[in-house]
Write a structure and sequence with these properties.
The protein is α+β, with helices and mostly antiparallel strands. The chain has helices at about 10-20, 30-35, 55-65, and strands at about 1-5, 30, 45-50. It has a single domain, classed as Alpha-Beta Plaits (2-Layer Sandwich).
Length: about 80
C-alpha cells in the first residue's frame, strides 16, 4: 500500500473514496480511529492509501478530477 494523500478534510476523503471506488480501485483510509480519539479536532490527518499496483491509475484519476494539488509526493520503492 502507498500513501496517495493526507488530509483532515472529511469531504475530500469522501470524494476521493468515491472516485477511486467508481474506477474499481480499492482504498484504505488510515488513521481515522486516532482522529476520532483526539476528538476530531484535525490534529492528525487521515491517509488515503491504495495498493502499489494501482498507484499510477489512482493518481491519474485524481489529477483528472482537479485534485493533483492534494496528492502526496510519490515515494520511490524501497531498495532503489
Amino acid at each position: 500500500m502507498v500513501i496517495l494523500l493526507r488530509t483532515n478534510d472529511i469531504v475530500l476523503i469522501s470524494v476521493v473514496e468515491s472516485l477511486l471506488e467508481g474506477a474499481g480501485i480499492g482504498c484504505f483510509v488510515a488513521d481515522q480511529h486516532i482522529s476520532a480519539l483526539e476528538g476530531s479536532i484535525g490534529a492528525f490527518p487521515r491517509r488515503i492509501m491504495v495498493p502499489a499496483d494501482w498507484e499510477a491509475q489512482a493518481r491519474r484519476i485524481l489529477t483528472d478530477a482537479g485534485l493533483a494539488h492534494e496528492l502526496a509526493p510519490k515515494v520511490p520503492p524501497h531498495g532503489r
